[in-house]
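Researcher: Go.
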Amino acid sequence: MTDWGVMFDLSVTFADLSDDEIIFLEKHGVNIDELINAKSLGALYKRILREGNAYLAINTSPCKKYGHKIRNRHGHCVQCNTAYFSHRKRKNVQGYLYMAYSKIKKIYKVGACEEIANREKSLNKQKYGCADDWEILFNVRLDACYTVENLIHNELIENRISGFRLSGSYEDARELYSFNDIDEATEVILEILSKLGFI
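Model: Structure:
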């Protein structure tokens, strides 16, 4: 992983923030050490955030609506829409890590959810990955299921299918993977969970 802190000065001090920004960040429980300064980064700040180096970037290009300069890893203005904080609230939620399989597409989905009962039906209804024959192969109930999901995704980079179409629009399919067969897929996921100490 690239050491961006050596290449750029990403540090943030209170002097870099306006009074409104300080109030906003305090309200949402964001510490100054969770920020990077994107002043000289352009769009590169999104990659740096995605690699887990920080939570938000300040001094980004101003949003069109109000000129705010705090954005998340997807480039969204978190001041205009605080719903972009929702994944942060999910960090320690109990739920299920699951693996689903599409026989027609021969692809696997590794995801997390809080309720497993209707997940298979939901995936097929939205035609996730342009497939409507999803079958959940197994699930594991965990504390902090979304945190575990992210750890699993990071371990599966070599198996990831990139540039897949989700529900008819081009998106980066971070949750879709390719394996030789169901046995290999199941074994790999369970080995990772075991290695990380979750089973």
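Model: The mean pLDDT is 84.
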